[in-house]
Design brief:
The chain has 542 residues and is an alpha+beta fold. The protein is built from 18 helices and 21 strands. α7 runs antiparallel to α10. It is globular, with a radius of gyration of 24 Å. It starts with 8 loop residues before the first helix and ends with a helix. The structure holds flavin-adenine dinucleotide. Flavin-adenine dinucleotide binds next to β3, α5, β10 and α12.
Length: 542
């Protein structure tokens, strides 16, 4: 067992005793076999001495039990690491960032406390997964949609606290932004509610976010200021229909106008489904002849010539529309006119109209090539794991992934610059094959920015993982030099990522540390999360 540094074995044993009394013997896990289940299968330090591992885990079933556990941890200064469903793969899994922490596993707290389909919201506990809420909504005949990430086994609370993202309308797919009201156990065991939840019997906890006075909800996202025990989320009334439309261009530099016009369509609300940028030309997977052409690093003119000769668009933009059928037909028509005016040579293709609830025939089409994915209709599933599994296209899959995920401005110029910067560096650093990955275009989970997402291989080979870690660090530093920084980071990489947010000699971090010292003087909640370390570990860890 890895006891947290600086904690005596007597104090640790006393704390475990206290935890056991709080939750019952069955729900305290101390055997190597049980604790190993909290390892991060995607850890870039897997099997190495630096791999952060838990000392024990404790699984309360009620808010009172969480309060009891937190008070005991605070008394004995035991670092604890709350998780909801613990599926944060790619960003740390269920493992703590600081070795020796006790995982506070909230999976058993999986009650759906309310679904309001008159004003469209839900109030849930941390262990409620997207599958749970989706099934509950269907079983109870509510006509509301959830917005889920690719893997449906994660939790609404854990995902939102990580700034996780989904695939329906912009106001729902930024999951933290779509929350309304929190209940939090503070580091001293006190219980606090935010927003209208602070008003006894308000009845509007899930309806108005701010309440009155300074707002603190953000402290608990990617933060280490408390244990969230309830959270409200806004849901979307089930729309009548969905349709998509695709715009194609053959000019290399048309990307700039394509993005600007897409921004106009999405920011004005004309298009409200999940938008996607693609490059049929650069997507050369399974096309050896085109891969060879791209490996020659062709000039923009050569790319354009190739595109026209082979009738493959260089760029396409997919736009989605959710709403009444006549309205979305008109929205697509207006969107086409916008693009036709801005890009007179653009081509257009209509997608199929889907009506909700889906007929069995239409349900069978979803998630098949050329049709929308289930997550675009708020249907949780696990099919995205297929991409990372062994297949004909991917005969040598990794055991896990380390995700480099910088935010860049939402312009065509920024895409060109990011591609050039990363491609040149990866060529120089001897990873020309990795450079091709940067042509998978940025994602648009967040309404006003692009997210580049690039997976580095994690295997069971320490040497491979060392290379991936080194590459990750170089990419983070290179991104920072260009004004780009990551929106989220694996636990093991949080300090490096937080370092990029350095304006005015790290004023942001200095403020975060001041708050941390005041709210959690013993530094027990998730040390190091978000790059914020408690005072007693700041010198040695940060
Ligand atoms: C193939 C693949 C595809 C993915 N696609 C997506 C995607 O589309 N969108 C996306 O967002 N993610 C995606 N992920 C990442 C990840 O799997 C999900 O974000 C997942 O929902 C996170 O796990 P979780 O919900 O169980 O959160 P948890 O692991 O429970 O929590 C995440 C972190 O939040 C903190 N936390 C959790 N609960 C609490 C609490 N109650 N109080 C205080 N702090 C808490 C902890 O630090 C914890 O480590 C993907 C991963 C893979 C492998």
């Amino acid at each position: 067992m890895t006891i947290p540094e600086g904690v005596s074995s007597t104090d640790f044993a006393a704390a475990l005793d206290g935890f056991e009394q709080a939750v019952g013997r069955k729900w305290l896990f101390t055997s190597d076999e049980d604790v190993a289940l909290y390892r991060d299968a995607y850890s870039p330090f897997y099997g190495e001495p630096e791999e952060p591992v838990a000392s024990a885990a404790v699984a309360p079933d009620s808010v009172e039990q969480v309060q009891a556990v937190v008070r005991i941890a605070n008394r004995y200064r035991i670092p604890i690491y709350p998780i909801s469903t613990g599926k944060n793969l790619g960003y740390g899994g269920a493992a703590p960032g600081y070795s020796g922490s006790v995982v506070l596993d909230l999976k058993r707290m999986n009650r759906i406390l309310e679904v309001d389909d008159r004003n469209h919201s839900a109030l849930v506990e941390p262990g409620v997964s997207y599958f749970d809420l989706y099934n509950y909504i269907r079983e109870h005949g509510h006509r509301v949609w959830i917005d889920c990430p690719d893997p449906g086994w994660g939790s609404l609370i854990g995902n939102a606290l990580e700034h996780g993202v989904g695939h329906t309308r912009p106001e729902f797919r930024d999951h933290f932004d779509a929350h309304c009201g929190m209940e939090v156990v503070l580091p001293n065991g006190d219980l606090m509610r935010t927003g209208m939840g602070a008003v006894p019997n308000a009845g509007s906890w899930q309806d108005y976010k701010y309440g009155f006075g300074p707002q603190f909800d953000g402290l608990f996202s990617q933060g280490n200021f408390g244990v969230v025990t309830k959270m409200g989320f806004w849901l979307m009334p089930e729309p009548a229909a969905y349709r998509s439309g695709r715009v194609s261009v053959f000019g290399y530099r048309d990307l700039i106008t394509l993005v600007d016009t897409m921004n106009h369509a999405t920011n004005s609300g004309l298009s409200n489904g999940f938008p996607g940028l693609q490059s049929p030309l650069y997507n050369a997977l399974g096309n050896p002849e085109r891969t060879e052409f791209l490996m020659t690093r062709p000039s923009p003119d050569a790319v354009e010539r190739y595109a026209r000769e082979n009738d493959v668009p260089v760029w396409t933009c997919k736009l989605g529309f959710l709403g009444p059928e006549k309205v979305i037909a008109a929205q697509w028509e207006a969107t086409r006119q916008l693009f036709a005016k801005a890009l007179p040579d653009a081509g257009f293709a209509d997608g199929e109209v889907f009506r909700f609830p889906l007929s069995p025939e239409q349900a069978a089409k979803v998630q098949t090539p050329g049709y929308p994915e289930k997550v675009e209709f708020g249907i949780p599933n696990l099919s995205r794991f297929g991409f990372v599994a062994r297949s004909e296209m991917n005969p040598n899959p990794a055991d896990g992934e380390l995700w480099f995920s910088p935010i860049i401005p939402k312009t065509g110029e920024a895409i060109f610059k990011a591609q050039e910067v990363f491609r040149t560096a990866l060529d120089e650093w001897g990873h020309p094959e990795a450079a091709l990955g940067f042509f998978s275009l940025p994602l648009q989970y967040f309404p006003r920015s692009f997210l580049l997402l690039f997976a580095l291989r994690v295997t069971r080979s320490p040497e491979q993982n060392r290379q991936s870690r080194e590459l990750f660090s170089r990419l983070v530093a290179l991104a920072a030099e260009n004004g780009w920084a990551e929106y989220r980071a694996p636990a093991a990489m949080m300090d490096e990522v937080a370092n990029a947010y350095s304006f005015n000699n790290h004023a942001l971090r200095r403020f975060q540390e001041k708050l941390k010292d005041a709210a959690d003087p013993n530094g027990i909640i998730s040390p190091g999360r978000g790059g914020v370390w408690p005072k007693h570990l700041r010198e040695t860890q940060a």
